[in-house]
Amino acid sequence: MEKQDKQRLARIGRLQRVTNWLRGRGPLEEEPSDFEKLRQEIEAARKEWAIAQQHIDHVCEPELIDHAIYYLEAAERKYGYLLREAKKRYKAQELPSPEPSL
Fold first, then answer.
1. Greatest pairwise CA separation for the chain in angstroms
2. What pTM does this model have?
3. How are the residues of the chain apportioned to helix, strand and coil, as percentages rounded to the nearest 5?
4. Are residues 1 and 19 in the same domain?
5. Which Pfam families did the record assign (predicted)?
6. Alpha-carbon dihedral of residues 46, 52, 56, 60, nearest 10 degrees?
7. Which structural domain range is residue 70 located in?
C-alpha cells in the first residue's frame, strides 16, 4: 500500500470517529496503542519499585521486614519482566525505537 493510500485511510478513520462521536455513538478518544499501554505499565512498575525501596528503608517493625522484602522482590520482578517484554517486542519490531527517559 502506498503512503498516500495509508494517509487517506487514516483520515477516513479519523472522520468516522468524529462523526460517530457527534452522533453520540462513542468516545472520540482513540484507544492507546500497545506501545503506549506497555510504556504506562513500565512507568507504573518503576514507581512501584521505587516505593518498595523507600518502604524497606523505613520499615521499623520486625514483623513487617519479611513483607517489605517480599514487596520489593515482587516489584523488581514485575519491572524486570516488563522491560524484557519491551525489549523482546522492540527486537520483533512491534514497537517504535525507545526514547531516552532520563
1. 65
2. 0.60
3. 75, 0, 25
4. yes
5. DUF2508
6. 150
7. 32-102
Cβ neighbours of residue 10 under 8 Å, at least 6 residues apart? Answer: none
Same-domain check for residues 57 and 73? yes
For cell 532520563, the residue is 102
Nearest to 82 by CA among 26, 35, 50: 35
Pair (26, 38) in one structural domain: no
Does residue 77 sit in the same domain as residue 87? yes
Query: What is the domain count for the chain?
Result: 2
> Phi and psi for 2 in degrees, rounded to 5?
-80, 160
Distance CA 100, CA 102 (A): 6
pLDDT per position as a tens digit, 8-57: 777 777 777 777 767 776 665 667 778 888 999 999 999 999 999 999 99
Same domain? For 26 and 49 the reply is: no
Greater confidence (62 vs 75) lies with 75
